[in-house]
């Protein structure tokens, strides 16, 4: 298939997803003024999420080093794997290769990676950083290495390009769902309380309870880490309370697997004895038993958007915005049911 034909196919896919005609997509891509603002926004959102690469960017990439670096905490968590998938989706349409490095949550590993990329052999970097603000970002900026941060968990300056999701909304969606099922003693197991995404999800949880007139019980808010072990340990602690919760909102699907394990160890069935909601919607969420109700964080789309932004930076194009937040949505499955009488 020719390059023109392939591009036409991609534009057709964008048009179908946005519910508009192919000429409308072309007008948006060419910055024509004869497109309604609401339609333009819808098309631009689909373009971002699909990872569409403009012709000018493709031409610039032909003269590049041919390598993009990506830094992730690890690949044991499907969260990182899904973001990598999104990055690869976009790079398949280019001649670029992906160099993947793991930090193992260690500043030393992060420093070693930085030393390697400072030799100028990279065109740019996509960073998935496990902890808060990284001093390495300043060094990348000083050395004029383009980069985009994905789902950063600390505080970022306004000059740092980044992609994330609506964590506050996700926390609220999960909690409102459980409230609608009649639950009032709802526990939340989150990540490290110093992380921005953890705080935002807890804030959304609090807002949903307060709006429903339900008291926020500090003993039901359990920070830890977005790991299976945290889900297990904190669930055991919650079950040992004099008045245990009837539902648990886990801060990640990986944590939720730990919640499942703890409940089964105690001989409690899901969802009869406890409703459970996760966060992320990684592939395992739909195949565990019972299938996990979860907040879908668009991880693949986040990887696509970050890559598209980075390619534009490499081509020295101005970004429409330095911060992109993709919307979360609740996926209801079998692990959450109406509260049953004791």
Secondary-structure blueprint:
Layout: H1 3-18, H2 22-29, H3 37-50, H4 55-61, E1 67-72, H5 78-91, E2 97-102, H6 107-117, E3 124-127, H7 136-142, E4 147-150, E5 162-165, H8 167-180, E6 186-189, H9 196-211, E7 221-222, H10 228-239, E8 247-250, H11 253-265, E9 275-280, E10 293-296, H12 299-314, E11 323-326, E12 329-331
Parallel strand pairs: 1-2, 1-3, 3-4, 4-5, 5-11, 6-7, 6-8, 8-9, 9-10
Antiparallel strand pairs: 10-12
Index terms:
single chain; 342 residues; alpha/beta; 434 Repressor (Amino-terminal Domain); Rossmann fold; 6-stranded parallel beta sheet; 6-stranded mixed beta sheet; disordered N terminus
Structure description:
This protein folds into three domains: 48 residues, lambda repressor-like DNA-binding domains (434 Repressor (Amino-terminal Domain)), CATH 1.10.260.40; 137 residues, Rossmann fold; 131 residues, Response regulator (Rossmann fold). It is globular and about 60 Å long. Helices cover 43% and strands 15% of the residues. By secondary structure, it is an alpha/beta fold.
């Amino acid at each position: 298939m020719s390059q023109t034909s392939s591009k036409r196919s991609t534009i057709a896919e964008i048009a179908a997803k946005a519910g508009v005609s192919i000429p409308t997509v072309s007008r948006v891509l060419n910055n024509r003024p004869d497109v309604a603002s609401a339609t333009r926004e819808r098309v631009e959102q689909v373009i971002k999420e699909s990872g569409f690469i403009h012709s000018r960017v493709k031409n610039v990439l032909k003269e590049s080093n041919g390598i993009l670096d990506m830094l992730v905490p690890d690949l044991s968590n499907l969260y990182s794997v899904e973001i990598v998938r999104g990055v690869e989706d976009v790079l398949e349409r280019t001649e670029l290769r992906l160099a993947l490095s793991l930090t193992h949550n260690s500043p030393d590993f992060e420093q070693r990676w930085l030393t390697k990329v400072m030799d100028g052999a990279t065109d740019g970097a996509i960073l998935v950083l496990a902890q808060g603000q990284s001093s390495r970002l300043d060094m990348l900026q000083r050395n004029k290495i383009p980069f985009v941060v994905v789902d950063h968990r600390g505080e970022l300056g306004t000059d740092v390009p980044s992609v994330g999701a609506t964590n506050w909304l996700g926390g609220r969606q999960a909690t409102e769902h459980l409230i609608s099922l009649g639950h009032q003693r709802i526990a939340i197991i989150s990540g490290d309380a110093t992380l921005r995404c953890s705080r935002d999800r807890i804030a959304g949880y609090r807002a949903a309870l307060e709006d429903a007139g339900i008291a926020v019980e500090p003993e039901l808010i359990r920070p830890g880490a977005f790991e299976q072990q945290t889900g297990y340990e904190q669930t055991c602690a919650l079950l040992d309370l004099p008045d245990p919760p009837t539902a648990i909102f886990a801060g990640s699907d990986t944590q939720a697997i730990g919640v499942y394990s703890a409940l089964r160890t105690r001989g409690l069935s899901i969802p009869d004895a406890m409703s459970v909601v996760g966060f992320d919607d990684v592939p395992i969420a739909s195949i565990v038993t019972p299938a996990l109700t979860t907040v879908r964080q668009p991880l693949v789309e986040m990887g696509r958007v970050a890559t598209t932004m980075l390619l534009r930076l490499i081509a020295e194009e101005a970004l429409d915005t330095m911060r992109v937040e993709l919307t979360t949505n609740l996926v209801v499955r079998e692990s959450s049911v109406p509260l049953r009488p004791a």
